Prior knowledge:
This protein is of the alpha/beta class and 523 residues long. It is 34% helix and 20% strand. The strands form 4 sheets. Strands 7, 8, 9, 10, 11, 14, 15, 16 and 18 form a 9-stranded mixed β-sheet that branches. Strands 1-6-5-2-4-3 form a 6-stranded mixed β-sheet, with helices on both faces. A 3-stranded mixed β-sheet has the order 12-13-17, covered by helices on one side.
Amino acid sequence: MGQVKISLSKSAPEDCELLVLPVSAAQTKGSKSKSATGWSAFAPSLRQQLKELDQEFDGYLKSGIEHFEFSPGAFNRVSINLGEPDLFLRLSGVTSLDAQDPPDAQEWRRFGGDVWKAAKEHNSKKVSVVLDSVPATNARLIVEAISEGIHLASYQFNDFKSSNSRSKTSARTFVLSSQSFNTRQMSKAAALAELRAESTAFARDLVNTPPSNLQPRDLVATARKIASKKGSGITQRTFNRAQLSKMGANALLAVSRGSDAAPYMTHLVYKPVNRSKRCKRVVLVGKGVTYDSGGLSIKTRQGLMTMKCDMAGAACMLGVMHAISRMPKADRPTHEVHALIPTSENMINGSSVKPGDVVRALNGKTIEILNTDAEGRLLLADALSYTEKLDADIIVDAATLTGACMAALGSKLAGLFTDDDDLCDMLITAAHDAGEKLWPLPLDSEYRSAIKSSVADIKNIGSGGAPGATTAALFLKEFVPEDVRWAHLDIAGPAFVDSGNEYIQPSATGFGVGTLLQFIAQL
Ligand code: BES
Ligand code: MN
Ligand code: ZN
C-alpha cells in the first residue's frame, strides 16, 4: 500500500491517463438485443453519453467499441486506446446501476481490483473513475467497495526481493467522481475501506513471511506493537513457557517440544471507553503455528511447502486488532474484543511429542496424541480452555485446521462450525458483506464417538471414515466453556491460495479480517 492514493471529487479530473466508466447491462437496448455487441448494443441514453465523450476523441471510442465487440454485461471489460499513446478508456460491465437494486459490494470490490489492474497494465499514474451513473443512495457502499478493491489489488509482498527483482510500482492516484457526491461522506467511506484493506494486508504480510523469519516470538512482538501504539486502546498479556507450564497448558507445550523456538500464548484486550448495556465480550482465538512440519507424523515434501501459512488464524485476529487500534475513536467497536493467540512451531527433535503420548490439557481433560500433525487442535484446546476465566459472551476461532475442510470446500470458502443458528447467520452475513464466504458444515454429535480414546478422555484424530473437519471441530468443542456461544472457522482452504481474483493475488489472502470486522460492527 502507500503507492495508492484515492480521492473523491464532484467532477472528473481533465488530466487523467485512464478513464474508467461502469456500464450496466440495463444500459443495452433491451432484452431483444442482449446478444448484440458493439456500438449498437448500447441503449440510446448511454450511446448519447459516449458520443459526447467520443467527440473529444475523434471517434476512437466508437471504433474501439465496435472493434472489441464489447457488450456491457457484468464483468465484461475492455480498454480502448483513445488515439494518444497514454490515454485509455476502460468500459467495465456491472450488473446494475439501478437505484432499485441493492448493490452487490463484492462485484464493486472486483470492479475496483480491475481498475487497479488496468492502471498497472496501461501504466497510468492518474486514473479517473467516473461514477455519475451510480445512484446517490448506493454511492457510499459502492465507493467503499471500489476503494477496498483498489487498495487490496495493489498489495505486494516485496520484503524478500532484491530491488532489481521487484516489479516496478509507481505511485498512482485514483479520483472517484460524481456530481451527486457528498465528498466528505464519501472520503470517510474511502478511509474506512483503506483501513480495512490495510489490515488485511497486515495479515497477508504475516502469513507470507518465511517461517524462519516469523517464529512464535515474532507473533508476540507483532501483538506487542499493536498494543503499544499510542492511543491503541489495547492491552496485552503474554504467557511464556514457564507460565504456560504453571497454568497447565500441556497440549500447547506438547506441540512445542520438538522445536527450538519457545511457545507463547498472547492475549490482547480492547475495551470500549464508554461501556453500554449492550456491550458484549467477544473472544477471537487464532491458531498460531508458525511452521507445521507435521512433527513425527511428518508431512510429505509437497505438504511442507506451504506450511508457513499455518498461523493464518493468528494473523487474522492480529489484523482485526490492528484495525481496531487505528480506527478513529468514534468508529471503534462498542463491544469488548479479545484476541487470544496460542503460538508454537510443530517440528522434530529428540524431545518431540510421540504418537501414543498422553497429555492433560488446561481444562483437565486428557488427550491421546496419535498424530502429531493434528497439532492445531492441541494449541486451540488450551486457548479455548483459557477463555473459561474470561467470561466470554461469544468465542470465534479461526484456524488452518484440516486438509479435509479444504478437500470439501476448496480455496474459496471456509468451513463454519457452530451449534448456534443465530451466530451462524450473523457470521455468514458478515462474511457476505466483506466479500468472503463461509459455509456451514456439521458439528454433529453422532461423530463424537470417533474421537474416543482407549487410554485417555479423547484422542486427537478421528477413527477411520469419520469426516476430518467435523471431528476436528468436535474435538475443539470439548474445550469450549459451557454455555458460551462459539463458532469455529476452518480457513485451511482460503487462507493461502494459488489462484485469487481481481484483488487477491496467489499466496496469503488475509482471509477473515474483513468478515470479523464486519461481524463486530454488526453485533
Ligand atoms: N495445518 C494443517 C492443515 C492444513 C492443510 C492447512 C493444508 C492448510 C493446508 C493441520 O495441522 C493438519 O496437518 N491437519 C491434518 C489433520 C489430520 C492429521 C487429522 C490434516 O488435515 O491432514
Ligand atoms: Mn498439522
Ligand atoms: Zn497445522
